[in-house]
Write a structure and sequence with these properties.
5 helices, alpha+beta, 7 strands
Length: 219
């Protein structure tokens, strides 16, 4: 369904999967509808915790642990109104869109087969399987390297063949900082860009005078 001719184009939020070594884009998953809210939580990482060395009270071990939570709606109703143009949706509902999201938290079948083959020949140490690097994109100023920590899907409506046609996806994400990845990792560079953007924005915020707080100076 098209909007008014003069209406602004609304950007979509979503997740981009990239190769952490080459930065090649592997998949782009745009949310069908932008969530109404985005919950962000920052857990400070102090050196001097309760009962610790008082001389370290104002020191930080590193960036705060930032987590995000959001709920996204997915609806196949519009596509089902034009089955000739959306044959995949007409045949399987939202399965393809849900599968694109779900496979972000799975190792690939090829990786599982390879590890099984190594185990069969008696390999003593099998390296854990690596997934692509996920980037949560919420406007051009917020491109965050993340790890998915929570993922739930509520399928809310089905067609006559029991294919889901409406669903709600809940995602919990942890922002990957320089403390979470090796030196030189792509996620570290992306986090630094994110932090520097915060600092630039903070620099543009107007500073209020002490009089706004009802004081004339610091005692």
């Amino acid at each position: 369904m098209s909007g008014f001719p003069g209406s602004p184009r609304i950007l979509k939020g979503g997740i981009v999967l990239i190769d952490p070594d080459s930065s090649a884009v592997l998949r782009v998953i745009a949310l069908q509808y932008n969530p109404d809210s985005l919950t962000r939580s920052l857990q400070v990482q102090p050196v001097g915790a309760d009962g610790g060395d008082r001389s370290e009270l104002l020191r930080l071990k590193g960036p705060p642990v930032e987590t995000l939570k959001l709920e996204a709606d997915i609806d196949a109703t519009d596509q089902l109104e034009s089955p000739d143009q959306n044959a995949g949706t007409a045949q399987s509902g939202l399965f393809a869109q849900l599968a694109a999201l779900e496979t972000m938290v799975y190792p690939t079948s090829a990786q599982l087969h390879a590890n099984d083959a190594l185990a069969r020949i008696g390999t003593l140490e099998i390296v854990p399987m690596e997934t692509p690097l996920a980037l949560f994109v919420w406007s051009a100023t917020r491109i965050l390297p993340v790890r998915i920590t929570e993922f739930s899907i509520t399928e809310e409506a089905f067609d006559t063949a029991l294919h889901p046609i409406r669903a709600k996806v809940s995602l919990g994400l942890r922002v990957l900082s320089v403390n979470d990845v090796p030196t030189g990792h792509k996620a570290a560079a992306l986090f630094m860009n994110y932090l520097q953007q915060k600092e630039r924005l903070a620099g543009t915020a107007a500073s209020q005078p002490l009089s706004a707080l009802g004081v004339v100076g610091v005692p």
